[in-house]
Amino acid sequence: MKNKYIHIYRDIVEKIRNKTIKPQSTLPSEHELMEVYETSRETIRKALNVLAQNGFIQKVQGKGSIVLDSDKIDFPVSGLVTFKELAKNMGQTYRTIVQFLDVTHPSDELMSKLDLEPSDEVWRVFRIREIDDEKVILDKDFIKRDYVETLTREVCENSIYEYIENELGMLISFAKKEIIVEEPSEEDREHLDLEGFSNIVVVKNFVYLEDASLFQYTESRHRPDKFRFVDFARRMK
To answer: Is the Kinase keyword given for this protein (predicted)?
Structure first.
C-alpha cells in the first residue's frame, strides 16, 4: 500500500479519538506495531513521527510513546477570539459566571500596564468560564472607562467584545500577548476545578483599538489540560 504510514497514522488517531487508546497510556512498542500492521520499522517510525508532530503522542526516552489528550481545545495565539466564539466553534456547552464587576481606580501595577493616572477609572471584571460543566478559565479584565462608559453583568455574561463592536461601534484591532506557566494561586484554586494540577497557563493580553489606543489589559488563567495554544508560523528570508 502506498504511504502505508499514513494509513497507520489515521488508524491510531481514530483509536485515540474514540478512546480505544486512552490518554496517558503508552502505545505498543515499535516491534509490536510492526507485527500488528505487518510492516517495516521505518514505516512505523514515520507514522509515530506524524503522530508526535500533530500532538497525539509524546515520545519519552525510556518510556515509549505516551498518548496525549486529544480533546484539548485549540486556542489561537495570534488571533483575537472571544470565549463565546471559541466554545461555539468547538460545539462545547459553555457558561460564563461573573464573579464581580465594579469600577475602581488603578493600582500602581495597572497604571503601568494601561498607561493610566491615579484619578482614572477602570472597569474590573472577573469571570469564571465553564466548559462542559468544568470551571477551566479565570478571566480578569481591566478596561479603561474612558472607552467603555457603561458595562453590565448581562453584557459580561454574554460577550464584552460583542458589545463593544456591535453596540458601541468600536473596532478591536490587535493585541500583544504574553504566555507563561506558573503555580496556581489560592484564587485559582478557589474558583477553578484544578483537580490536583500543579500549574496553570496564564495569557496576558494588551488589547488595542483600530486607532492603536490601548484600552484593555486581560489576564486569562487556564487549566492546562483543556487547551492547546496554537499558531501559524511562516519562515521569512
So the answer is: no
